[in-house]
Prior knowledge:
Blueprint: E1 11-12, E2 16-18, H1 26-44, H2 61-66, E3 75-78, E4 86-90, E5 92-101, H3 117-128, E6 134-135, E7 139-140, E8 142-150, E9 160-169, H4 173-184, E10 189-196, E11 199-200, E12 209-212, E13 226-229, E14 244-246, H5 247-267
Amino acid sequence: MDTVPPYLPPRTDGKTLYGRGACDAKSLIAGQMIAAQKLVEAGHGDDVQLLFVVSEETDHSGMKKANDLNVNPAHMVVGEPTALKMSKMQKGVLKIRLTQKGVAAHSGYPHLGESAIDPMIDVLYALKNESWPHSEEYGATDLNIGLLSGGQAANALAEQASAMLMFRLTTEPDVIFERVKEIVADRVGMELYTANAPVHLTVVEGYETGIACFNTDVPYFKFDGKAYLVGAGSITDAHCPREFIELEDLRNVVGYYFTLGKRLIEHGK
C-alpha cells in the first residue's frame, strides 16, 4: 500500500489517472477489491481473502508481520503493474548501506583532517565500473546508488558520508554481497539492509507472460500455495513524475482479476 516519495496529488483528464500510486499500486488495490466483491457476489465468498500491507518499497516489514496472521492460501495474486502480463519470474534484490566517518577540518588545511567523502567516491566508482553477472534467464544485474549524503559545509572536510545501494539480482544475494566486500576492502563501512534471491512465479496456461525486473513482497510471505504476479499499467511509468494509468486499463483489470480468481478457485475444487 505504500508508495515511493515524493507525493504527487491525484488528477484525471477523464482518460488517464495521474499521481503517486496511480500505477504502483494503489489503483490495483482498488481493482482487486472490486474483483473480490464480484467473486463474493458470484458465490465464492468463502474462497477469497484480501491482504494489503505496507513497507513493500523499503524493508518488507508489512509482509513479514502478515505472517503472524497464519493464513495459508492455495493461491496468492500480487498486484503489480506488469501490463497484464503474468510474470514468470522476478529479479532478486540486495540493499547495502555504506557508511564512513571522517575528521572535520578547514578545507584550506586538509592535512589536519580526513574527508569521509573521498573514500566513498572511490568505492562507488569501483562498484559502478564492475562487470556484474548477466543471465540469459533474468538479464543483467543492475546497481542503483539510490541515496547519497555527506559533509557539513563546502569549506570543511566531510565528517560523515553514506550511500544506499540497491542491486537487482540475477544470482543469489551472497554472490554479489561477497564481491561488494572484496571491492570495498574495508575502505568504508558496509552493512546488509535486506536481500532475497530471484523468485520463480506461477503462470496460468493461456495468459500472456513476461519477466519482472523488480522486487515484490512474494519471497517474504510464508505459505504453501502458488504466487501470481500481474496487474494493469506499466512499471516503467512508476517511481517517476509522470506516474499514470489509463482508466480503461484500470476498468479492464477488474474483469481480469475476477476471471483469474474464478478460474483458480474452481480448478482447486
